[in-house]
Amino acid sequence: MKSKSLFRQITAWFMLLSILASCAIYHMENKQLSIWRRNNIIDTKKQFRIVIHEGEKLSELVNFVREDNALRGSLQPLPEKVDYYYKTSKYKRNFKVPRRDRMYINQLHLFVNKVAYENERAIIDLNSIQEVQILDLNTGLTVLANFGAAVRTFAGAFFAAILISCNCPHVYTYDNQTYNYTNTLYTGAVYKNLERYDYKLLPDVSSNKDTYKIQLRNEEQEDQYTNFLDLIAVEHESNIQVASDQNGNIYSLAEIQKPLIANDDNGNSIISLIENKDETDYHFDSFGKDKYSNVYTQFEKPENVKDGKLVLSVKNSEWGGFVYKEFTQLFGNYHDNWTRKASRKSMQKMTESMKKGGVLLVVSVFKNNHWEDVETINLVGSRNHNNIVVPISKLNSADKTISVRIRSGFKFWDIDYIGMDYSEQKPMNISHIKPEITSAATPAQQGALLSNDDNYFHHPANSTPLSIEFKDLPSSATKARTLILCSKGYYVGQRKVSGKPQLAKLKEINRSAGLSAYSKQLFDVYNDYLNQLSKTP
Questions:
Q1: Distance (Å, rounded) from C-alpha 412 to C-alpha 380?
Q2: Which helix (H) or strand (E) holds 460?
Q3: Contact 446/203 with Cβ under 8 angstroms?
Q4: Among residues 446, 382, 369, 374, which one has the least CA distance to residue 412?
């Protein structure tokens, strides 16, 4: 996070208050931790009020300490004046604060998914922070005109960042009592030219039932266009697992092996984090000489085997979405103009830009004394882990081991499991079930829009959920069943950005691995600041 700059910026601004008049003008900046230059650091023992947002609930975090990747402290009701000035900042761009109330203005707001508790102490997981807001002095913004041609050079870097943000359609599955948020669809397809097929495992809540119900919900400020939906039902023996690659090819997994070795960039073993599906993730938080975060694994390989199936359980990180929001601030008032130009680029160029920035997960195999890329994995969303098979072929039959490298931008992905399977494909019965729209307010004939890859079902922002049924699923008392939802579509966000474009920082990020390095800078700033803050008496 660009925290270091951000917080240094904040401390600098707050120190300026001591030399201003008795009333100062404040405003709320939704900065997602904007970075200043590192030479703008000013150490201070200024006290900040840390406000935790958990849904609609606001609390102040007090007496806290930093432990590992979390803040531990006590939550208490928000003081009335802290709440008053925060609410004032939401509807007044600028407002004055008397000197006597300065103690209520130094506010740092952390928006989190959930607060955990242990022995009545609150635990704030830093990975769960989705947004940061600061109430600070309004120094004014200048607008750089004629930004024009310079912005075009940042197309690759920008799209590498924008796609990290996991908005997209949300899938809710029915468990015979209620609908539960399960996964997302075609994550990262933020423009029509990035539309692609997406495959997500769904929970089979009732394996003996022949009807499956879901809802698609647009819970973001965006327009969503779904082109195609297909439920893939796979019947198989109960002693095997089933998963697909990102192209929709389905594989049986009968003898998954754990890696012999799994190390990060610093040579530290992470095997305990990735050898079981237990959600004790490795967060790609090492930083290699190539400015990416790498996992190096080695597997035993049976003699004369030339093909394998790498099995991954991964998801995108919440941190990645935070970096995206921070990054878009750098474009300032030219954000919209730039995206329109960049959106005309081909999917191939966009993929190369995302790969270059570290947004996509790159799998490589060590062959002929060098790392050979075998798969580039697209975004899968941050809701939950997704099982993905990466087929690996043309191995040297005489080799007794296979070395695999998995590369991410700094903290852009979480990985829960890595395994390798060399078993032959087992018999499977695969059925494709078309969707039927059952929403009362939606004409039933529009269900055809989801059944064929030709037209789009438009789901605008703030619209009602789209209820869908899949009927006549195969069911057997002797077979297991795995369900995979295939989707295709794209979505267009309505995010607005203002302010002065920061050309120097954009140029820096546009280099190879620049977005990954930017993420590391942000994290270091944020990490250092929280460490300093927790030690303040």
A1: 12
A2: none
A3: no
A4: 382
More confident residue, 269 or 208: 269
Nearest to 403 by CA among 427, 375, 370, 444: 370
Model pLDDT for residues 276-313, shown as the tens digit of each residue: 998 889 999 999 999 999 999 999 999 889 999 999 99
- pLDDT tens digit string along 105-139? 777 788 888 899 988 899 988 767 776 677 754 32
Does any domain span residue 151? no
The residue from 421, 439, 464 where one domain ends is 421
pLDDT per position as a tens digit, 7-48: 443 333 233 222 222 233 444 444 333 332 222 222 233 456
Q: How far apart are CA 395 and CA 401, in angstroms?
A: 10
Question: Is residue 258 in some structural domain?
Answer: yes
Pairing of strands 49-54, 107-112: parallel
Return the percent helix, strand and coil in the chain, to nearest 5.
Answer: 25, 35, 40
Of the two residues 376 and 67, the one the predictor is more confident about is 376
Going from the C-alpha of 494 to that of each of 328, 335, 336, 445, the distances in angstroms are 13, 11, 10, 29
Co-location of 66 and 198 in the same domain: no
Distance in angstroms (rounded) separating the CA atoms of residues 190 and 165: 10
In the DSSP assignment, the letter for residue 17 is G
> Residue 531: which pLDDT band, with cuts at 50, 70 and 90?
low
Phi, psi of 501 (to 5 degrees): -65, 140
Is 461 inside any structural domain? Answer: no
Amino acid at 209: K
Distance in angstroms (rounded) separating the CA atoms of residues 3 and 126: 12
Question: Of residues 4 and 65, which shows the higher confidence score?
Answer: 65
Q: What is the DSSP string of 329-392?
A: HTTGGGHHHHHHHHTTS-HHHHHHHHHHHT-SEEEEEEETTEEEEEEEEPP--SSS-EEEEEEE
Domain housing 132: 3-140+502-535
Same domain, 205 and 250: yes
Q: pLDDT digits over 478-507, tens only?
A: 889 999 999 999 888 777 777 888 888 888
- The answer on 323 and 233 residing in a single domain is yes
Kindly state whether residues 186 and 128 are assigned to the same domain. no
In a domain, 464, yes or no: no
Report which of residues 94 and 227 the model is more confident about: 227
CA distance 217 to 181: 9
Domain shared by 204 and 319, yes or no: yes
Mean pLDDT of 184-197: 86
CB atoms closer than 10 angstroms to residue 393: 9
User: How many folded domains does the chain comprise?
Assistant: 2
State the Cα–Cα distance between residues 373 and 358, nearest whole angstrom.
14
What are 112's two structure tokens? 């989190």
Least confident range from 332-336, 357-361, 516-520: namely 332-336
132 and 170 belong to one structural domain = no
Whether residue 134 is found in the same domain as residue 167: no
Local structure of residue 105 (DSSP, 8 states): T
Among 372, 398, 421, the domain-final residue is: 421
Say if residue 15 is in the same domain as residue 67. Answer: yes
